[in-house]
Amino acid sequence: MIEIEGASKDFTLHNQGGAAIPVMAGARLDVGAGECVALTGASGAGKSTLMRMVYGNYLARAGRIGVCGVDVARAAPREILALRRDRLGYVSQFLRVVPRVPTLEVVAEPLLRVGTERDAALERARGLLARLNLPERLWSLSPTTFSGGEQQRVNIARGFAHAYPALLLDEPTASLDAGNREVVLTLVEEAKARGAAILGIFHDEAARARVCDREVDVGTFTPRAAA
Ligand SMILES: Nc1ncnc2c1ncn2[C@@H]1O[C@H](COP(=O)(O)OP(=O)(O)OP(=O)(O)O)[C@@H](O)[C@H]1O
Protein backbone atom coordinates (compact mmCIF):
# COMPACT_ATOMS: atom_id res chain seq x y z
CA MET A 1 0.00 0.00 0.00
CA ILE A 2 3.00 2.25 0.71
CA GLU A 3 6.02 1.31 -1.43
CA ILE A 4 9.18 3.39 -1.37
CA GLU A 5 11.89 2.45 -3.85
CA GLY A 6 15.21 4.26 -4.25
CA ALA A 7 13.92 7.58 -2.88
CA SER A 8 16.45 10.37 -2.55
CA LYS A 9 16.22 13.90 -1.26
CA ASP A 10 18.49 16.96 -1.40
CA PHE A 11 17.72 20.26 0.26
CA THR A 12 18.70 23.31 -1.76
CA LEU A 13 19.88 26.16 0.43
CA HIS A 14 18.76 29.19 -1.59
CA ASN A 15 20.21 31.59 0.94
CA GLN A 16 23.64 29.94 0.64
CA GLY A 17 24.31 30.14 -3.08
CA GLY A 18 21.91 27.30 -3.93
CA ALA A 19 24.07 24.65 -2.25
CA ALA A 20 22.47 21.19 -2.45
CA ILE A 21 22.66 19.17 0.77
CA PRO A 22 21.92 15.46 0.25
CA VAL A 23 19.92 14.12 3.24
CA MET A 24 18.62 10.83 1.91
CA ALA A 25 19.60 8.34 -0.76
CA GLY A 26 18.18 5.00 -1.84
CA ALA A 27 15.39 4.83 0.74
CA ARG A 28 13.29 1.72 0.40
CA LEU A 29 10.47 0.28 2.45
CA ASP A 30 7.07 -1.33 2.07
CA VAL A 31 4.04 -1.12 4.33
CA GLY A 32 1.31 -3.62 3.56
CA ALA A 33 -2.37 -3.57 4.48
CA GLY A 34 -2.88 -4.05 8.21
CA GLU A 35 0.76 -3.32 9.00
CA CYS A 36 2.32 -0.60 11.10
CA VAL A 37 5.95 0.26 10.39
CA ALA A 38 7.99 2.57 12.63
CA LEU A 39 10.66 4.91 11.27
CA THR A 40 13.61 4.98 13.67
CA GLY A 41 17.03 6.59 13.68
CA ALA A 42 18.95 9.30 15.49
CA SER A 43 17.75 12.88 15.63
CA GLY A 44 18.39 14.43 12.22
CA ALA A 45 18.52 11.06 10.44
CA GLY A 46 15.57 12.04 8.25
CA LYS A 47 12.43 10.48 9.76
CA SER A 48 10.31 13.61 9.34
CA THR A 49 11.80 14.26 5.92
CA LEU A 50 10.76 10.79 4.72
CA MET A 51 7.24 11.22 6.14
CA ARG A 52 6.93 14.57 4.34
CA MET A 53 8.12 12.95 1.12
CA VAL A 54 5.40 10.29 1.43
CA TYR A 55 2.77 12.96 2.10
CA GLY A 56 4.00 14.95 -0.90
CA ASN A 57 5.14 18.02 1.06
CA TYR A 58 8.75 17.42 0.03
CA LEU A 59 9.56 16.43 -3.51
CA ALA A 60 11.93 13.47 -3.91
CA ARG A 61 14.92 14.04 -6.21
CA ALA A 62 14.76 10.45 -7.43
CA GLY A 63 12.94 7.20 -6.81
CA ARG A 64 9.38 6.03 -6.49
CA ILE A 65 6.98 6.64 -3.60
CA GLY A 66 3.87 4.60 -4.27
CA VAL A 67 0.83 5.25 -2.07
CA CYS A 68 -2.40 3.45 -2.94
CA GLY A 69 -1.44 3.35 -6.62
CA VAL A 70 -0.19 6.94 -6.91
CA ASP A 71 3.54 7.73 -7.32
CA VAL A 72 3.77 10.73 -5.04
CA ALA A 73 7.27 11.51 -6.37
CA ARG A 74 5.78 12.23 -9.80
CA ALA A 75 2.11 12.99 -9.27
CA ALA A 76 0.56 16.32 -10.20
CA PRO A 77 -0.48 18.50 -7.23
CA ARG A 78 -4.15 17.84 -7.93
CA GLU A 79 -3.59 14.05 -7.80
CA ILE A 80 -1.83 14.47 -4.45
CA LEU A 81 -4.74 16.50 -3.09
CA ALA A 82 -7.18 13.79 -4.22
CA LEU A 83 -4.97 11.12 -2.59
CA ARG A 84 -4.93 13.09 0.67
CA ARG A 85 -8.67 13.54 0.59
CA ASP A 86 -9.66 9.91 0.39
CA ARG A 87 -6.69 7.54 0.72
CA LEU A 88 -3.79 9.05 2.70
CA GLY A 89 -4.24 10.50 6.19
CA TYR A 90 -1.61 12.34 8.24
CA VAL A 91 -1.76 12.90 11.96
CA SER A 92 0.92 15.51 12.53
CA GLN A 93 2.04 16.58 15.99
CA PHE A 94 0.19 19.85 15.90
CA LEU A 95 -3.30 20.85 14.91
CA ARG A 96 -3.50 23.51 12.23
CA VAL A 97 -6.33 25.50 13.71
CA VAL A 98 -8.77 27.21 11.41
CA PRO A 99 -10.17 30.20 13.32
CA ARG A 100 -13.87 30.14 14.24
CA VAL A 101 -14.56 26.55 13.09
CA PRO A 102 -16.06 24.54 15.99
CA THR A 103 -14.19 21.44 17.15
CA LEU A 104 -16.97 19.08 16.08
CA GLU A 105 -16.78 20.43 12.51
CA VAL A 106 -12.97 20.25 12.52
CA VAL A 107 -13.19 16.53 13.35
CA ALA A 108 -16.09 15.76 10.97
CA GLU A 109 -14.60 17.67 8.04
CA PRO A 110 -12.49 14.82 6.53
CA LEU A 111 -15.64 12.65 6.47
CA LEU A 112 -17.77 15.38 4.88
CA ARG A 113 -15.11 15.88 2.21
CA VAL A 114 -15.39 12.23 1.13
CA GLY A 115 -19.17 12.49 0.92
CA THR A 116 -20.24 10.99 4.25
CA GLU A 117 -23.75 12.03 5.19
CA ARG A 118 -23.66 14.93 7.68
CA ASP A 119 -25.43 13.21 10.61
CA ALA A 120 -23.20 10.14 10.33
CA ALA A 121 -20.06 12.32 10.12
CA LEU A 122 -21.04 14.31 13.22
CA GLU A 123 -21.91 11.10 15.08
CA ARG A 124 -18.49 9.63 14.33
CA ALA A 125 -16.83 12.92 15.38
CA ARG A 126 -18.74 12.92 18.70
CA GLY A 127 -17.77 9.29 19.33
CA LEU A 128 -14.07 10.00 18.79
CA LEU A 129 -14.05 13.16 20.91
CA ALA A 130 -15.81 11.28 23.72
CA ARG A 131 -13.32 8.38 23.52
CA LEU A 132 -10.46 10.89 23.68
CA ASN A 133 -12.01 12.44 26.79
CA LEU A 134 -12.44 15.91 25.33
CA PRO A 135 -15.10 17.58 27.52
CA GLU A 136 -18.39 18.00 25.65
CA ARG A 137 -18.57 21.70 26.57
CA LEU A 138 -15.58 22.25 24.25
CA TRP A 139 -17.07 20.59 21.16
CA SER A 140 -18.90 23.71 19.96
CA LEU A 141 -15.87 25.96 20.44
CA SER A 142 -12.99 26.59 18.06
CA PRO A 143 -9.88 24.72 19.30
CA THR A 144 -7.81 27.93 18.88
CA THR A 145 -7.67 28.53 22.63
CA PHE A 146 -7.40 24.88 23.72
CA SER A 147 -4.40 23.57 25.65
CA GLY A 148 -1.66 21.72 23.78
CA GLY A 149 -2.98 18.32 24.87
CA GLU A 150 -6.58 19.22 23.99
CA GLN A 151 -5.51 20.37 20.52
CA GLN A 152 -3.53 17.19 20.05
CA ARG A 153 -6.60 15.09 20.86
CA VAL A 154 -8.73 17.09 18.41
CA ASN A 155 -6.01 16.47 15.82
CA ILE A 156 -6.02 12.73 16.51
CA ALA A 157 -9.83 12.55 16.36
CA ARG A 158 -9.71 14.38 13.00
CA GLY A 159 -6.95 12.09 11.70
CA PHE A 160 -8.84 8.92 12.61
CA ALA A 161 -12.32 10.12 11.55
CA HIS A 162 -12.13 8.80 7.99
CA ALA A 163 -10.97 5.20 7.43
CA TYR A 164 -7.98 6.08 5.23
CA PRO A 165 -6.31 2.99 3.69
CA ALA A 166 -2.90 4.58 4.36
CA LEU A 167 -2.03 6.63 7.42
CA LEU A 168 1.05 8.58 8.54
CA LEU A 169 1.47 9.18 12.27
CA ASP A 170 3.99 11.65 13.68
CA GLU A 171 4.41 10.96 17.41
CA PRO A 172 0.71 10.36 18.04
CA THR A 173 1.16 9.70 21.78
CA ALA A 174 3.56 12.57 22.55
CA SER A 175 2.49 14.56 25.63
CA LEU A 176 -0.69 12.57 26.27
CA ASP A 177 -1.61 11.23 29.70
CA ALA A 178 -1.72 7.47 30.24
CA GLY A 179 -5.48 7.16 29.64
CA ASN A 180 -5.48 9.07 26.34
CA ARG A 181 -2.29 7.35 25.22
CA GLU A 182 -4.14 4.07 25.65
CA VAL A 183 -7.07 5.34 23.56
CA VAL A 184 -4.71 6.39 20.75
CA LEU A 185 -2.93 3.02 20.75
CA THR A 186 -6.32 1.29 20.56
CA LEU A 187 -7.28 3.54 17.60
CA VAL A 188 -4.06 2.49 15.87
CA GLU A 189 -4.84 -1.17 16.54
CA GLU A 190 -8.38 -0.73 15.19
CA ALA A 191 -7.04 0.95 12.04
CA LYS A 192 -4.65 -1.96 11.49
CA ALA A 193 -7.47 -4.45 12.06
CA ARG A 194 -9.55 -2.81 9.29
CA GLY A 195 -6.52 -3.10 6.96
CA ALA A 196 -4.88 0.32 7.10
CA ALA A 197 -1.19 0.57 6.18
CA ILE A 198 0.46 2.79 8.81
CA LEU A 199 3.87 4.46 8.76
CA GLY A 200 4.83 6.31 11.92
CA ILE A 201 7.41 8.01 14.11
CA PHE A 202 7.04 6.88 17.74
CA HIS A 203 9.57 8.09 20.26
CA ASP A 204 7.48 6.25 22.89
CA GLU A 205 9.31 2.91 22.83
CA ALA A 206 6.60 0.94 24.61
CA ALA A 207 3.99 2.27 22.18
CA ARG A 208 6.20 1.28 19.25
CA ALA A 209 6.72 -2.20 20.64
CA ARG A 210 2.99 -2.64 21.09
CA VAL A 211 1.57 -1.41 17.76
CA CYS A 212 4.43 -1.65 15.26
CA ASP A 213 5.13 -4.82 13.31
CA ARG A 214 8.53 -3.66 12.04
CA GLU A 215 11.06 -0.89 12.40
CA VAL A 216 13.00 0.74 9.58
CA ASP A 217 16.15 2.66 10.53
CA VAL A 218 16.24 5.78 8.39
CA GLY A 219 19.95 6.11 9.26
CA THR A 220 20.64 3.36 6.71
CA PHE A 221 19.40 5.76 4.00
CA THR A 222 21.82 8.59 4.73
CA PRO A 223 23.82 9.41 1.60
CA ARG A 224 27.09 8.36 3.28
CA ALA A 225 25.68 4.94 4.26
CA ALA A 226 24.39 4.45 0.71
CA ALA A 227 27.71 5.40 -0.94
N1 LIG B 1 13.50 22.27 4.90
C1 LIG B 1 14.77 21.90 5.13
N2 LIG B 1 15.83 22.58 4.61
C2 LIG B 1 17.09 22.19 4.83
N3 LIG B 1 17.44 21.13 5.58
C3 LIG B 1 16.44 20.41 6.12
C4 LIG B 1 15.05 20.74 5.95
N4 LIG B 1 14.29 19.83 6.62
C5 LIG B 1 15.16 18.99 7.19
N5 LIG B 1 16.45 19.31 6.89
C6 LIG B 1 17.64 18.59 7.32
O1 LIG B 1 17.48 17.21 7.01
C7 LIG B 1 18.00 16.37 8.04
C8 LIG B 1 16.90 15.42 8.52
O2 LIG B 1 15.94 16.15 9.31
P1 LIG B 1 14.61 15.47 9.88
O3 LIG B 1 13.81 16.55 10.53
O4 LIG B 1 13.97 14.69 8.79
O5 LIG B 1 15.20 14.46 10.96
P2 LIG B 1 14.44 13.55 12.04
O6 LIG B 1 15.05 12.19 11.94
O7 LIG B 1 12.98 13.66 11.86
O8 LIG B 1 14.91 14.27 13.39
P3 LIG B 1 14.20 14.42 14.85
O9 LIG B 1 14.14 13.02 15.44
O10 LIG B 1 15.16 15.30 15.59
O11 LIG B 1 12.86 15.05 14.63
C9 LIG B 1 18.54 17.30 9.11
O12 LIG B 1 19.92 17.42 8.95
C10 LIG B 1 17.84 18.62 8.84
O13 LIG B 1 18.63 19.72 9.21
Any descriptors?
ABC_transporter-like_ATP-bd, alpha/beta, four-stranded antiparallel sheet, 9 strands, 37% helix, transmembrane transporter activity, 227 residues
3D structure, described in words:
The chain is 37% helix and 25% strand. With 227 residues, the chain is α/β, with parallel strands linked by helices. The strands form two sheets. The chain has a five-stranded parallel beta sheet, with helices on both faces. Strands 2-1-4-5 form a four-stranded antiparallel beta sheet, with helices on one face. Helix 6 (178-193) links the parallel strand 7 and strand 8. Helix 3 (103-113) crosses helix 4, helix 3 packs parallel to helix 5 and helix 4 packs across helix 5. The mean pLDDT is 93. Bound molecules: adenosine-5'-triphosphate (ATP). Adenosine-5'-triphosphate is lined by residues 11, 23, 41, 43-49. Residues 11, 23, 41, 43-49 line the site of adenosine-5'-triphosphate.
